[in-house]
Structures are given as structure tokens and as C-alpha cells.
Design a protein that fits this description.
395 residues, alpha/beta, Aspartate Aminotransferase, domain 1, three-stranded mixed sheet, binds pyridoxal-5'-phosphate
Amino acid sequence: MYNDFQSHLEFEKEDLQRAGLWKFEREITSPQGAVINVRGETALNFCANNYLGLANNQQLIAAAKRALDERGYGMSSVRFICGTQDLHKELEQKIANFFETEDTILYAACFDANGGVFEPLLSERDGIISDALNHASIIDGIRLCKARRFRYGNADMEDLENQLCEAIDCRFRLIVTDGVFSMDGNVAPLDKIYELAEKYSAMVMIDESHSAGVVGRTGRGVTERFDLRGKIEIITGTLGKAFGGAIGGFTTGKKEIIEMLRQRSRPYLFSNSIPPMVAAAGIEAFRIMQSSNDLQDKLHTNTEYFVCKMKEAGFDIKPTESAICAVMLYDARLSQCMADALMKEGIYVTGFYYPVVPQKQARIRVQISAAHEHEHLDRCIDAFIKTGRKYGVIQ
Ligand SMILES: *Cc1c(COP(=O)(O)O)cnc(C)c1O
């Protein structure tokens, strides 16, 4: 039997390879950071979600080590049986304070937070209206729920309004959007979404994974950017990007919603609690962001500088309000050749092309971090100019 399945997998693999969709992984042999070691080669990293540079922060590491000594390695339990320490509760409180929400529930990852948020709250009498470019975990979460599904074009408010009209006979309506869309770096127009939600009596859920720590003057996310703190029913996010980059996710928002998720959300009920050291380091990450705005400020200055210099050099950069800069190349092969050439210059970036982005919209995505120093940004820009000229992307 396995022989047949094995050849089936080999055919599928060849298909993927022929389509150029087979993924490779580079091995990093150092901590995650601005400067990394990739199997013996030093490179500047511009493709991590390490927006605030906390992935190798000494205060987070110290907090994690202390928790390791004082609270042990793992919980060997789900939360409701015997997997909750004071650290988990403290982290939930910190997250609620950060987003100005009423309560928070932790998950092993944001993938689980999104996977477990819809099914416990909504039924076939309800409707979910979802942005076409929402993250895979939102799409999967919606699939697990019986609510009716409506989709609107990316950040297209006219289409959202049409879909809200279509959903008008649903008992409850929930609009769902990513805060920042990961391939373009654009921010969801939450002000307009909120207006439409009011007009059509819908609730709003926003996934702040790429925006928390990044967007808004103090990094509180898209709700800060549009002055809507405390107004959005459901916010999901990850501890795996700006907030230290280890593991963990959360849903934060109205207390009755969080309370019901604790009772019914399957990835919470039937999956382990995050390790105490991760909770402790998470608490430290929120403490750092609350005690000073230095990292957020540095990230914003770095991003503005990078985008400005790249435009000056003649590159076509998608309008961005996040730390994601899409350097548009349009041609799939070119995006791969440029990324390889940049790696030879010691700049680690990734080229994306169809089907990850639309046809003829290939690009290199650059992710800026507070861990980057001016010298790192300049080296990246210089390498882009050198390789861009070589490939005829710029003059
Ligand atoms: C990264 C990401 C996730 C997944 O987060 P994990 O905690 O790594 O599972 C979910 N949603 C969005 C929008 C993301 O960007």
C-alpha cells in the first residue's frame, strides 16, 4: 500500500518543483537578529518578523531563565486541568492593558487563536464577512464554523458594504480583517470598517499579528492608528513576531467573548499551555514597551529612512504603513535572481511571486526592525542599488 502512496507523493513533488513552488530552508546557526550566521556566512537579516528586535533581547532572556529556574520547564497540562500559573494570568492582563481591552485568552499560537475563535461564538444563523487577503489561519478558522461566509476584496470598502447588505438577514455579523497585510504592508482601513460596522450593526475582529508593536505611535496597533482603542470586539495577535518571537498567541477583547472562549474554544481546551519561561519573557516584552517608546520610535525612524532612500534610488515601493516594504519587481524570475544576488552581498531577503502574490506582481519583501542600525540599513540599500543596476531594475 505505501508503495502506491510513495509514488503519488513523488508525482506531487515533481509537480511542485516544475511549478517552482518547492520551498527550501536556510539554516541559521546563530540567534535571530539583525546580523545572523547562515551556515558559516554572515548576513544581515531583512526577512524576520523581529520588528522590535526582541527575539534576542537580554532582558527577555534573563526573564525566561529566571522563570525556568523558578517555575520549571513545562506545564504538562492544558489550562483548565492544571496548566495555569500566575505567569499566564499576568501575561493575559498585560496584553489586555496594552490593547486597552477587557480580557485576554492565551493560545499556543495565533494560528490556534484564529482557529478557535469563530466556531464557539457563531452558528449557521450568523455571517462572517472576511477580507480576501486574510491570513490562512483566519480562513481555516472560518471553515471550522457553521456561520455563512462572505468575502470582500482586499481593503475594498465598497465591496465590504455590498457584502454587509448580502448578510443583512443574518442574526449576528462579524467583519474580520488582518491589521497589516503581509505581502504589501498596507494597513486595513479600520476607521471605514468601523463606520460600516456601525451602519450595518456588525462586530469587528482584527488580527494584529503584523501590526502590534509596529503600527501606531506607541505600537499599540491599528486600533491606535485609527483612534479606536477599546472599540473593537475581538483582537487576535501573536507573541511570535514583534513581542519576542518565540511562540504563543492570544485573543483579547470584550470580557464575555473571552469568557466563552475559555469554555468552548477547542485549541485552548485541548492543547498545552505555553511554557512558563515564554509567559515570563512575554510579560517582560510588554513591560519594556510600556516603560519606554524607544524601540517603537527606532522602528519607525528606520522604516521611514529605508523607504525614503529606496525611493530616491528609483525603486518602486508599495505604499506601506508598517515595517514591511515590498520592493516591486513584477517578474517572478527576476525576484528570485535579485534575492540570490542580494544574499551573495550578505543581505538576506525573500522574493515572492505567484501564487503567494498575484500574477506579474513579483517582489522582494524587506522587513525592517528596531534591531537594525543605520549602518545595516545603508548596507542593505547599497546592495539593492548594486544588484538593481546589474539587473536593470534601476538606472
Ligand atoms: C503570523 C500570523 C499568524 C500566525 O501566528 P503564529 O503565532 O505564528 O501562529 C496569524 N495571523 C497573522 C495575520 C499572521 O501574520
